Amino acid sequence: MITLTLNNKTLTFNDDPNMPLLWYIREEAGMTGTKFGCGVAMCGACTVHMDGKPVRSCQTTMAEAAGKNITTIESVHESSVGKVVQDVWFDLDVVQCGYCQSGQIMSATALLTEKKMPTDADIDAAMSGNVCRCATYVRIRQAIHAAAKKLGEAEQS
Length: 157
Known about the structure:
Helix content: 40-55%
Structural class: alpha+beta
Distance between the termini: 46 Å
């Protein structure tokens, strides 16, 4: 039996330990915000946080998730950084089709949790595994910079 914490809820899984975490999140837990994109960890649509670090859930097995704390797009707003990132995403109208954006937000939140004022190079490195077919990369970078600024202002208050 595998036990993990998904969005602050302890859950158990008693099936194939090689099942991708993505399918558990979507099919077993019913949280469809995490998207299937490529299935080979190359597009980033399935990005979630595992113990605070971004991982591609399509290639992370349930065995690897055992005992871990998993955060999906459904609860990223519960962290102060995730809330600001989501707010800025909406304020700046980053989303075009929206399919990749949950993964983009998860990666951006992880970046800003680790690095308060990222450079363009930092952003490019952190976001390089996230593909946007609508090419909203300029808006994504602007949103990350705006979120960093907003978080910095909140820290100084």
